[in-house]
Specification:
By secondary structure, this protein is of the alpha+beta class. A four-stranded antiparallel β-sheet has the order 3-27-26-25. It has a four-stranded antiparallel β-sheet with strand order 6-7-8-9, with no helix packed on it. Mean pLDDT is about 90; it is low at about 1-25. Keywords: Membrane, Repeat, Signal, TPR repeat, Transmembrane, Transmembrane helix.
């Protein structure tokens, strides 16, 4: 018995060691893998791809500044060996197959394998596109288009090339901002420019155009859209392009009409390559060595890799120039500076995500739920799995389950669609009850009004309280209701009849603060702009009371120096009471936000616009009536108040910067003194 127990313990220890060793081996990659949560933040996840092979040469043939690469359907790797002016062909194990183009090419920078087994090569130095057979036989050469539509001064320096199944050639030319050049491969005819990038116009540029003369504008550098960096095509003929720059669509998925059907921006300013996987997943490589994987709809699945710091670590790049994906979803990354190719293999976790995604895209929603749930079990922060699970539930009309999944995924649009269906079901089942409740409340209200009119119970109670208790505070608080129908009379009562008080105004100020917090954190999920679990009550409190002090204080100071008749107490009470529409209607708007969907978003927007416009009118009337101003003078006071608020904020900011710099100076002097004392 003891031998059996000892053997069991040894076996258990061996299994723990084996599993932990395997996990450490996978976790100890030189890079980390991230995904994107529902709020667009990067969160770390399990390793999705690991490097299985590294190719530094094909046989005895080395690369030199290679700038592009493609993988054929036969698994062979075609490399545009830019530095040697040739095309190298090899296997995944690094065996040399052949090379060609040494006599024709000078500086090949782009390569593409067409559907009819041809190799298209863009040569930037010779300004031509060459067409070879797979064996390296030169078949055709395309030079600068002769069509007048191309433009006499337009550049033709081919960098990248792609070909669709209709034999249309797409060429990216350095310095040609008109768009992607299209040439028919059969006739050589110039077809036109395809989908140019949009010009990035900053607000400063718009301002300059508005005030500068024609002569001044002519001296400015022309604003031209950036040229695309790379492109690729899928089997359906959709064009994928990447572009570099801050104000440009970095990743585009273009239909036949040249319209971008992808609402995704790569969070990297230097994308250099794009490839398409077996699931129509989009892979984007950046110059810094990061590789991004997106779904066909633009949802980020994984980002991994990175820039090597000189230690030659596996999985990192010094300068990534191209990526390619084979039929088994292995990713090939070409390092231009290190002259090598790294081949990434999907891990079990990535395969599980891809399996669930494939089942969902194929319409097998029931089968896709199990792998999605397994992904969530392995990583509860993988929000895209919740999104896939929610969409699967929604397609199967399991709306309540979809509601929960979309909530976990932080997907407001999906949550809105699911809630719409859940609400419709509830309304169908309870519409009669709801009608009876409203009718009952209406009848009850009529009865209470009738009883009050006949018996006067409320009036008697009010008179009793006034005669026996001090109720001025409650009367002052209740005075705010008069702001809805008689705002001018109410302001007069506050200023001349001593109605309202600092205590009642302070009470409503506290209510305003409470509504501000409730609006921020308890607005319905569909309309909320606050992330789950994110509470900043301390900062909210500081901002709220600082803003109120700034507005009221600035207005009082401006009215004081402009012969205003209102005292500080009057201004403070009047300002708070002018928010009466907010106090009365905002709670209902917040409550309604928990029961409406995106289809009714306009109702919330309209309600908020009405409330804020109403408050603005009451504030205008308050400033005018309490200070005895004309309408024109009131506008002047409001403008001066806003200007003073701006100056105050700038002054506080400058003082803050000076204080920070002073502390930094004192800290630096202290550290220097300590250093000198220690080194005597």
């Amino acid at each position: 018995m003891k031998k059996i127990k000892r053997f069991s313990l040894l076996l258990l220890a061996f299994l723990i060691f084996f599993v932990s060793t395997a996990q450490v081996a996978e976790a100890n990659t030189a890079y980390r893998t991230f995904t994107e949560d529902g709020y667009g933040r990067y969160v770390e996840t399990q390793t999705a791809y690991t490097v299985r092979e590294t190719i530094v040469k094909f046989g005895d043939e080395l690369f030199s500044q290679a700038q592009d690469m493609k993988v054929g359907s036969d698994g062979l790797i075609y490399v545009a060996d830019t530095g040697h002016g040739r095309i190298l062909v090899g296997t995944r194990t690094g065996d040399f197959v052949r090379s060609f183009g040494e006599e024709e090419l000078s500086r090949p920078t782009g390569i593409f394998l067409s559907h009819d087994d041809k190799v298209y090569v863009a040569d930037e130095a010779k300004a031509e596109v060459y067409v070879f057979s797979l064996d390296g036989e030169l078949l055709q050469i395309f030079g600068r288009p002769e069509s007048i539509l191309f433009g006499e001064t337009a550049n033709f320096m081919p960098q990248k090339v792609a070909v669709d199944q209709r034999d249309n050639i797409y060429i990216i030319s350095r310095g040609n901002s008109n768009g992607i050049i299209q040439i028919n491969a059969n006739t050589g005819q110039f077809l036109g420019y395809f989908s140019p990038n949009q010009t990035a116009v900053t607000p400063l540029t718009i301002f300059r155009r508005a005030i500068f003369t024609d002569e001044q504008l002519s001296r400015m550098i022309d604003i031209v859209p950036p040229t695309s960096t790379n492109l690729n095509l899928d089997e359906r003929g959709l064009v994928y392009s990447v572009s570099q720059g801050e104000r440009v669509e970095s990743l585009r998925k273009l239909n036949v009409a040249g319209q971008n059907i992808l609402e995704t921006r790569v969070s990297d300013d230097f994308p250099v390559s794009v490839a398409i996987g077996s699931l129509d997943n989009i892979f984007v490589g950046s110059e810094d060595g990061f590789i991004y994987e997106y779904t066909s709809e633009g949802n980020l699945l994984f980002v991994f890799g990175g820039q090597d710091d000189g230690r030659q670590r596996v999985g990192l790049f010094r300068r990534l120039s191209a990526i390619a994906v084979d039929q088994e979803d292995r990713i090939y990354g070409l390092d231009q500076d290190r002259n090598q190719i790294q081949i990434y293999q999907p891990t079990e976790f990535a395969d599980l995500v891809h399996q669930a995604l494939k089942l969902y895209q194929d319409g097998d929603y029931e089968a896709s739920k199990e792998p999605w749930e397994e992904v969530i079990r392995l990583n509860s922060l993988f929000d895209f799995a919740y999104l896939g699970l929610g969409e699967a539930y929604f397609k199967e009309e399991q709306y309540e389950d979809a509601l929960v999944a979309f909530r976990q995924a932080k997907d407001q649009e999906g949550y809105s669609d699911a809630y719409w269906e859940v609400r419709n079901v509830w309304m169908r089942e309870n519409i009669i009850t709801v009608i009876f409740i409203f009718v009952g409340l209406y009848v009850l209200g009529k009865i209470l009004k009738y009883v009050e009119r006949k018996k006067g119970y409320w009036q008697k109670l009010s008179s009793y309280l006034k005669d026996n208790y001090r109720t001025k505070f409650f009367e002052d608080v209740y005075l705010i209701k008069n702001m809805i129908r008689h705002p001018i009379d109410t302001y007069y009562s506050i200023q001349h009849e001593k109605k309202g008080s600092l205590y009642s105004a302070s009470f409503w100020l506290f209510i305003l603060y409470a509504l501000f917090i409730i609006d921020k954190y308890f607005t319905g999920f569909i309309f909320s702009y606050v992330r789950d679990g994110e509470y900043t009550l301390g900062m909210d409190t500081i901002i709220f009371f600082a803003a109120m002090s700034l507005v009221i204080g600035s207005n009082y100071l401006i009215t004081t120096i402009n012969d205003g008749e209102g005292k500080f107490g009057h201004i403070f009470i009047g300002f708070i009471y002018a928010l009466a529409p907010y106090f009365i209607f905002k709670p209902f708007i917040i409550l309604a936000s928990n029961f409406l969907t995106l289809n009714e978003a306009y109702l919330l927007s309209l309600a908020n616009v009405i409330v804020y416009a109403w408050v603005a009118v009451l504030l205008f009337v308050m400033i005018k009536e309490m200070n005895g101003y004309t309408v024109r003078e009131t506008f002047k006071i409001i403008f001066l108040t806003l200007f003073m608020m701006l100056i105050t904020v700038l002054f506080i900011f400058i003082v803050y910067i000076l204080i920070v710099q002073m502390f930094q100076f004192i800290t630096a002097v202290f550290n220097e003194g300590v250093y000198r004392i220690e080194n005597r």
